[in-house]
Design goal:
Blueprint (H helix, E strand, L loop, with lengths): L3 E2 L11 E5 L17 E9 L3 E5 L2 E5 L5 E4 L12
């Protein structure tokens, strides 16, 4: 799987994805970015009168909080009902 820029396209609404912000620096501290590091998360695109990310139950995180996304990988196979 390859990273997809949010400038190129967004995932469908309510589809869980992996998120990446490659622009973490002082101006993004309010998004929870550690300074000068890439920041990863998982969430989905929501719509509250505009497009927003929903991360771990927090809604209305701005689209610009992340630069890239990709689909989640397939879950591991479970044998005999045990994880």
């Amino acid at each position: 799987m390859n990273w997809i820029s949010v400038k190129d396209r967004l995932p469908g609404p309510f589809v869980p994805v992996v998120l990446l912000n490659m622009n973490c620096h002082e101006s993004h501290i309010d998004y929870g970015c550690p300074m000068n590091r890439h920041y990863y998360d998982a969430g989905y695109l929501d719509n509250l009168g505009g497009a927003y990310w929903s991360i771990r139950g927090q809604r209305a995180i701005g689209i610009n909080a992340y630069t890239h996304w990709m689909p989640l990988p397939a879950p591991p196979k479970v044998e005999d009902g045990n994880a």
